[in-house]
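Form 7-S
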Amino acid sequence: MIYQIVPKNKRSLLIWLLLILATGLLALFYLSIIFPENNLRPQSITKGDNESIEIGEDNSWVATTTSAGLTFRYPLELLTSYISEANWPPQVTIEDQQFVCSPSGSEIELGGQTELRTVDKRSYCLTKASEGAAGSVYTTYTYNFPRGNQTGVIAFTLRFVQCQNYDEPKAAECESERSSFDVDGLADRIAQSLIIKPEQEENR
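Output:
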């Protein structure tokens, strides 16, 4: 029988490599137990003025907390082809007054058009003002809604491409997207996500 003698230095190197490999596998094992969904956990981003943004698992809607202590969720971007964000993210505030809605005006006049809207039996007072510029229409939406004895306000501006600028079939696609785009539903979802810190509630 012939025995192969492994030099001592090579044997030590082999042992060290095996120890390093075992340590790495053990570390990965414990990390998988402690953080089973590490890649799906929400991430936090800090902005100026003490605002923070938390990115959700689907990266489509994010949560933000303003310096006034208001937390709400909104879509990071609109998944549309002919409608885009102009003044975004939405501005959300709380006014220390009762909710009142007085319909008046016109969308294309100074001050815009104010009307009472209902989404899932929830009341919103919408003021909508539009102006055209370079083949697009910019519409500013301001939604007021009751929040206890106060009034919540959501404001944002969207850019709508003028569909008649396109040839078919894009013109038809543009019109279809515009007619099916639910701005009221978007505002309602933002409003329903609104959370006010307890200390901010007490100070109001």
